[in-house]
Structures are given as structure tokens and as C-alpha cells.
UniProtKB/TrEMBL annotation:
Residues 1-64 are annotated as: Disordered. Its main location: nucleus. This is Uncharacterized protein. It is found in: Nucleus. One of its GO terms (cellular component) is nucleus. Residues 19-44, 52-64 have a biased composition (Basic and acidic residues).
Length: 490
DNA sequence: ATTAGGG
DNA sequence: CCCTAAT
């Protein structure tokens, strides 16, 4: 029983043609995160200058555990030969949310040495890891952050740390944007660049136009809800409307001086987006993939601005951030939630019941009316629980395990086995609040699966084959143990 | 609260 | 990751 399988060889060449699906995945991520932001957002917003919630700590020591020479892993090596690795994580959950909070701003920009983290050093192996493996950056190269997808930056603000001279904030609703753009523009875009290159291919790598999208705003959101509805249901309805919009596969639309730029093959320079562009000329909008709307504004990015439009179906709605749409059309028993801020031309003045709230809300530009409404009036509503749960049961944001985390997990499991996730958690992820033992268990499950499939089929940041080998070995070993115990008890 | 698995 | 059933 002692000896496990034969020594594995380190297969080189990790499949890396994973980029294909990235696009798709990114979209999905967008959806989720969008929702999250909207929900959790407070008033502050991430400013471009916030450079990333870089983790300051970053004092990662990664020492090679003594288990390296595991050419023939056996019971002992599994159980004892490993030093303990512990992930010390200082941040807690909602990292993104934090970023959106005023205070965090200060914190984030703080000095790199301030983290109150505890760096636990144990024996020969230890390492610090902060949740979004920002620590990885300085240690491992194969982090998912390395993918050349700009998009990603929008989603993983925290990742654009180390080398980025600028960072994006996700498309969250911004509340202070108005100030920046005195006009009714919802988009706050800054661009600076040094263009000179005029290549024809969009993929050309010349000078870069740096764009910093401060926030995506949702001009209007129409909610149809009976006056007798409760605040709770309104809340939920808004949430559903929002998620319905965001939920569809979104794509980004580019607006230049109000006109939608359709030709995706044109280069920025060709399109007229260059260094000398004054901000505000460029706009972005998020829109459903399928514009199956009945009316004519289908094509017109400004449809939201046009007062002529009648009613928008949820799906037809586009979230855009350039045009400010300030309409006053409101139907009876229709609570119109205006998100445009100050510049609000309309007087979403009086409303039935929820009027009070709305007024307050009118201060918040952006669709984020949700949190506002969310105040205190929370009632039990007999609605179905779709996307907008009664409870804020938001799906947690995705947090891909970093290689460092995987290693920690593997090591813990090697020692503890696969049936003690609680202990594994405590042992290796005690400080990673966002990693629950269930998460670890799930991760192990996927790791085992990953280890079994061909490298080409793997996705995400490639996990070193060495680790995968250990996963299989440990899995095999502990599975065996489990069987034995079962047989014994029988 | 944990564990184990399916979704 | 989420959700659940069973501990």
C-alpha cells in the first residue's frame, strides 16, 4: 500500500491554446460581475488612478518544499514529507466591492508595506498569497493575468497591478462621473495616447491609445410595477431588469461622436480615435447581443435619448455610457427610475409610493438605483426568486485559483487527505476568507479532472504538470485509503 | 458546521 | 460556484 504508482515524468509543454474560448468566458464573467457591482456598489467608484488594488504585501517567499524529490511518492512522503504551506491572505471577500468603496481608495493607494498580514513562515516551505494572487505576479509567470486580452482588464481590475501604468475600472456605475463630465454624458472616458502608427490591421501593435473608462452608466431603466407593490418587489424587479439586460451576452459598442462605429476591422486611428481626441467624443455602450427589438431605434445608439421612443422592452435596452438620456415620459403606475444624475433634465419628481425613494435616488446617476431603493423597506414579497433573490444571495465572484493556491491545496491534501476539507482549509487557506472548504473540495475535484484530461483541453491558467501529477498521486493514494477503511469497517 | 456529490 | 442531502 505504501507505494503509489510509478514516478511520473514532468510532461512539458502545457497546452496553451486556450485563448480561443477566452472570449466567451470573458463575456460570462462580465455578466456576473456586472451584476455584482451593481448590487454591491456603494457610492464611491473606482478611479483610474486607483491603480489597482494592488496588494501591497507581496512578499512572497516561495521556497521549494522538500517534497520535490518525490519521484516515488509513497505514504510517508505524502503524509509527512511535506512541509506545510499556508496561504496567508489578507484580503477578505469582496475585493471588487471594496474597490468601489470610498475608503478602500485610500487604503489601496497606501504604501506597499502596510498590510496587516501575517506572514507565516513554517519550516522550509511557506508562502504568502493574497487572494487574487497578485502575489503571483512576482513569482509565477503563468498567471491568468498574462493573457493578452484587454477585455480582461476590465474585469479584473485587481490584476492590472504591477506593470500597468493605468488601470480600468470595471463597468460599474459611477456616481461621481457627473462631476467629471458636466454635460449629460454618462460616459467618462479619458484617453491619452501617442498615435503615429496607422496600420490597417486592427491588431496592429503600434502606439497605444489608452482608454480609461471610469464607468458605464445605464441611462434609463423602466420599471413597470403596480403601485401596490412593495419596496421589496420593486427592488427585485429592478434587479431582474438589470440582470436581464446584463445577463444577455453583452457586447461593447463603440460610439464616436454619437455614431456607432460598426466596422470592427478598422483601426482606431482610421476610425478617428487617436491621441488628439477630446474626451467625450468616444463612447462605449453595453448592449445585448441580440437586438431583437421591434422598433426602429434598433440601430440608433441614441435611441435612448430620443424622446420619441415609446416603450422599451427590457431586452431592447442598451446600456450605454455616452448618451445621457433624460426623458420624462412616465406612465401611470409606472415607476420610472432615472439614473441620470444632476444634469437630469426631467423631473422625475413625483411618484406614487416609491417617490420618496426615487427622489433620493435621482441623486445617484446610474442604474444603481437598486441599492438606494434597498434602504430599509424590505418586505416579504411573494415573487419568484429568479435573479433577484429576496436575500442578496449573489453568486460569488469567480476567483480562479492561482498556481500558488493550487500548490497549497495539493500539499495540504497530500498530507490530510481528501476527506477533511475543513482541516485543509484551516491548514492551507486559513487566511483566505473567500475560500471555503467547499471551494477547496470543489477545486480538488476539478484538479483531479484537469489532471486527467489532455493539456489541450485544460483551460484557465495552466497548472504546472508537476502539480497535476501530485494531484493524481495524492488522489490515488487517498482513494485507496478510503477503500481500505471501508473494507475494514465492513 | 461538515461532508459528499450532483448541477 | 451553487445547492442539497445526509451527517
Amino acid at each position: 500500500m505504501g507505494d503509489s504508482s510509478s514516478p511520473e515524468n514532468h510532461l512539458e509543454g502545457q497546452g496553451q491554446n486556450v485563448l480561443e474560448r477566452e472570449d466567451e468566458r470573458v463575456k460570462m464573467r462580465t455578466t456576473n460581475e456586472k451584476v455584482i457591482h451593481i448590487k454591491s456598489r456603494s457610492d464611491g467608484l473606482i478611479e483610474p488612478g486607483q491603480k489597482a488594488s494592488k496588494d501591497c504585501s507581496a512578499e512572497n517567499h516561495v521556497e521549494k518544499p522538500s517534497l520535490e524529490g518525490r519521484s516515488h511518492m509513497n505514504l510517508d512522503s505524502l503524509a509527512n514529507g511535506c512541509a506545510t504551506r499556508k496561504l496567508v491572505n489578507r484580503d477578505d471577500d469582496e475585493n471588487f466591492v471594496r474597490c468601489a468603496q470610498p475608503n478602500s481608495k485610500i487604503k489601496i493607494s497606501g504604501s506597499p508595506g502596510s498590510p496587516p498580514d501575517t506572514i507565516k513562515v513554517k519550516d522550509a516551505s511557506h508562502f504568502v498569497n493574497d487572494e487574487n494572487n497578485s502575489g503571483d505576479n512576482s513569482v509565477l509567470e503563468n498567471s491568468e493575468r498574462m493573457y493578452p486580452f484587454k477585455k480582461r482588464k476590465f474585469f479584473y481590475q485587481t490584476s492590472s497591478s504591477t506593470s500597468d501604468s493605468w488601470s480600468h475600472c470595471q463597468g460599474i456605475v459611477d456616481s461621481s462621473s457627473t462631476r467629471v463630465n458636466g454635460t449629460n454624458h454618462g460616459a467618462v472616458i479619458e484617453e491619452s495616447s501617442s498615435m503615429a502608427d496607422q496600420q490597417v490591421h486592427p491588431a496592429s501593435k503600434g502606439c497605444n491609445v489608452k482608454l480609461s473608462i471610469k464607468s458605464f452608466k445605464v441611462p434609463e431603466l423602466f420599471i413597470d410595477i403596480p403601485e401596490t407593490a412593495t419596496i421589496g418587489s420593486l427592488k427585485r424587479t429592478v434587479m431582474e431588469a438589470v440582470t436581464a439586460i446584463l445577463g444577455d451576452e453583452l457586447h461593447v459598442g463603440i460610439l464616436l461622436q454619437g455614431k456607432k462605429v460598426r466596422d470592427d476591422s478598422k483601426t482606431l486611428i482610421q476610425t478617428g480615435i487617436s491621441q488628439d481626441d477630446k474626451r467625450h467624443r468616444l463612447g462605449f455602450m453595453l448592449e445585448p447581443r441580440h437586438n431583437r427589438m421591434s422598433s426602429s431605434y434598433n440601430d440608433d445608439p441614441c435611441f435612448l435619448t430620443t424622446g420619441s421612443r415609446q416603450k422599451l422592452s427590457r431586452q431592447s435596452n442598451s446600456l450605454m455610457l455616452q448618451q445621457g438620456s433624460y426623458n420624462v415620459s412616465r406612465e401611470r403606475s409606472t415607476v420610472k427610475i432615472e439614473n441620470c444624475a444632476e444634469g437630469d433634465l426631467n423631473g422625475v419628481s413625483s411618484l406614487g409610493d416609491t417617490s420618496a425613494n426615487n427622489n433620493n435616488m435621482s441623486k445617484c446617476r446610474a442604474l444603481v438605483t437598486v441599492p438606494a431603493i434597498n434602504m430599509d423597506a424590505l418586505a416579504v414579497v411573494p415573487y419568484r426568486r429568479k435573479s433577484g433573490n429576496p436575500d442578496f444571495g449573489q453568486r460569488r465572484i469567480r476567483r480562479p485559483f492561482s498556481v500558488l493556491e493550487v500548490e497549497a491545496l495539493v500539499q495540504a491534501v497530500e498530507k490530510l487527505g481528501t476527506g477533511r476539507w475543513r482541516d485543509v482549509k484551516q491548514r492551507a487557506f486559513d487566511n483566505a476568507k473567500h475560500r471555503t472548504y467547499v471551494d477547496l473540495k470543489d477545486k480538488w475535484k476539478t484538479l483531479v479532472h484537469t489532471a486527467r484530461i489532455s493539456p489541450q483541453q485544460r483551460r484557465g491558467e495552466p497548472v504546472p504538470q508537476e502539480l497535476l501529477d501530485r494531484v493524481l498521486a495524492a488522489h490515488a493514494y487517498w482513494s485507496q485509503q478510503q477503500c481500505k477503511h471501508q473494507l475494514k469497517s465492513m
